[in-house]
## 1
Amino acid sequence: MGDKIKQHRILAVQRFKNGESPESICTSLGMSRVWLYKWIKRSNGEEPSWCEDRSRRPLSMPLHTPAEVEEIVKMVRLNLYNQDLFCGAQAIYWEMEELGVRPLPSLRTINRILSRNDLTHRRTGKYEAKGTPYPKLPSLIPNQTHQADLV
């Protein structure tokens, strides 16, 4: 499919350079005049790959989280997970605060790092309740026992 699109672009530019009107080129190819002029402008440069798509990704991301901080987030997350402790963004934030990490990323940034590195899975295994069970009075028929918590 990519080669067919490239051929469309090359053909349109060649037809324009041969003197054909932009209206007839655009109507025959089913494209807009803006599209045609974009590829004419790109073909005027010396770049041999002018007919290929260009990435819209920025060339640099100055506000990107430093790699060291990302590694610390992953290390703290795995450390908490291996100790069977809560290992969400808030716990990681607190742990990094105790370690004295600077710059300290926001909770949202920590969540993004965890998602990007596929560290957001839930624990496996059966749920084990912690603490003592709530006391329950035995009753044989409905409405036999009433219970209230007095504080």
## 2
Amino acid sequence: MNDAKEAETMANEYIPRDPRTGRPLVTGRRRRRVVDDAYRTGPGVWDAISLPDVLPLATGELQACEVEWGGQPYLVSRPDAVRALPRISRKREVETHQALVAALSDMKPEVRVAGLFALPYCALNQVENLFEHLHELLEDVDSSVRKAASNCLTIVAPVFPSATEETLRRELRSSVSIRSKAAFKALRELCLVWPVVVVVHLDELLREDDVALRTEASKLLPRLAKTRSAAVWDLIGWSLQDEAASVRVQAARTLATLADSAPRLAAILLETALFDEDDDVRSNALRSLNRMDVTGFRMKRLCLDGARDRHR
């Protein structure tokens, strides 16, 4: 009963978006309030800047102004105003976009960081050149900018999968840990909304020579296992035969899920996993047996062969 209510709630709150623009697709009556609540900037002192002052501050026309936030007076300047740009991006789309582009290419790192903070939300209205800047800022000379760019990528990738595809492809293979971790975090989020995009990336990653990279990619297979897709099933079957045990272990973790959603496929894959030389792979295979019908001749024979196997 609870599961049914959860599914109904998720269905009511799900917002289909265009993969190129990130804008919500029109599917009947508008749900603007849900969009705003689900995709907005975090609170901060920039929220206290009066709307007429946001653009002058963000462009440098106005150097600073005093605001009150949380009962305390603050002096805000250009970086704060850049963070406030999403507040006016709908009503003053062109000027906001120009101010954001200028901020992303500014000489001061703190201004570029502020621009990256505002980018995901302003991009819902105007995307031109924004993702080109993001692509470059991920390799910025300043570490704070690179970190902000990686965080920005994790936010925008699930909303703009097409626009960030090449950038994500590069970051997933980055030798810099913080960058690759952020990219894989983005890929995990994509599993929920655009699993077909994740499959494309995994199809490439699981062919890489780097075992660590294949292992990290294979960790996403359990998230995709519920997707009834032949492409996903191919990736799982392929990974169960990988030369690296770490990859096979992650693939074997999908068997319990497949036992419920695709039992005939799970039975076929079980024949490979049950006789694997790695203990963890076999353990995952055995767990999946608890969810499968073992009364058929083939499954009985498989269980008996497994019991006689030298690894048992």
## 3
Amino acid sequence: RVAGGGAQSDLLTQLLAHAAGLRTVRPRCTEASLLGAAGVAFTALGYATDLNALMQTLNPPQTLCTPDAAATAGYRAQATVIDGLLRALTEAQQARSENADDELA
């Protein structure tokens, strides 16, 4: 399930499905905080006994995005490259910090 402002975008919801390799489901209303609070209150007051069932009734799925295997593989390959770059940057920053510490000593 996706929620929040970004969930209103068909493109972003589909990209998330591709990148994660998982189906994304957008409910009719993406205001998760508001509906979650209302659902908890309804359940606490005894108007509902099953919060999950209540949420399915109040806010049923509207849009389902399925991932494309080729797109998912592409995103995973990019993630591997980005992870390597991030490691190299972290190591360079640590080395720079150690050199600065040595110069101060």
## 4
Amino acid sequence: MFEPQVYQNRRARLRAAMPGAVILIPGHVDSPRNYLANTYDFRQNSSYLYLAGHALPDLALLMLPDGEEILFGIPATIDDIVWTGPVPSLEELAAAAGIARVEPLPRLEDRLARLKDVHYPRPFRGEMELRLAHWLGMPPSSVRPEASADLMSALATLRLCKEPREVEQIELALEASADMYDAALGAMMPGAREQDVVAAMTGAALFHGCAQSFTPIVTIHGEVLHNHAYHNTLHEGGLLLVDSGAETAEGYASDITRTFPVSGHFSARQKDIYEVVLRGQLDAIAACAPGVGFADVHGVACRSMAEGLVALGLLQGDVGELVAAGAHAMLFPHGLGHLLGLDVHDMEDYGDLAGYEPGTGRSRRPSTRSWPPAPASENDRCACISACYNYCGLPQGVFP
């Protein structure tokens, strides 16, 4: 966690954006994989992490109009400690986040029953919808529609522009990514399996104390956008697409994509297409600047890649007309990139029409996706006060 003052300042800014509001920020609960005691790795709600920092289940933050803040949780019992070892008390957790008061989680329902117009963010996990329905006395079907648009907008505005400490965290995630891709190169050879590459990358992330920020895509079938099977064998002359990221202990993510020639060098055709993708990425990076609309940068990448594909004879016609008609989207079917931060697609609902404001972080991912597979490349970028810079130090040139 960061220092308590960090979380206090963030909550003060949220209160200033929503004066007089009752704000409930529920943390996540453990999610069972196949029976109650066997859970998925715990991942805290990102807005809770932003405002309180605890990566532990069964917590909730209540912010009241008079400035009072209460941390609700379940104190550990002796039976719990047998399995977990000593854990911080609720009072210690509250102090770490700069919160003055704690109460047992079962009291939250009674607290909320005496309050009006409780603002809470839209949940995306089913168990959180049920928990909010119970706390707020409403049908589960009403939980998502009645989530506070004002609160979500305020949270997005706060989380959009990254503090220097947050930029440092993303850079730490990218340091782990760099070693993950070095490990991938070391494991990649004709006859190796995709799972061999995944195993090497997982070890590199753990060496940095990082988790995977999403399920890695490591595949010889780069034409399939989200391919999470790793059973294929790498072949001489083939390509391997790797789309992966690391997540720091504080919850900040990286997201990098590279396409490698399995044999160590591209064929002439592969090199031509890779250079089209690389030029699209470099042109998009050059277009990034504070105040520039994201859709405008996406358009730069589309036109750049259409020009390259026309030059190779893979598209025919006027470049402007092809882009206007969306012909390039047959080979570039997804968006250029996304926000980065506490989520690998940070605040996914924020929208891609937002501009580059100082402190925002985005990935850059032009690609060609086709049958047969073709290359993709993705870097992470940050907008600063007067310019943008590349978070990512991974090389992105063409293999000879």
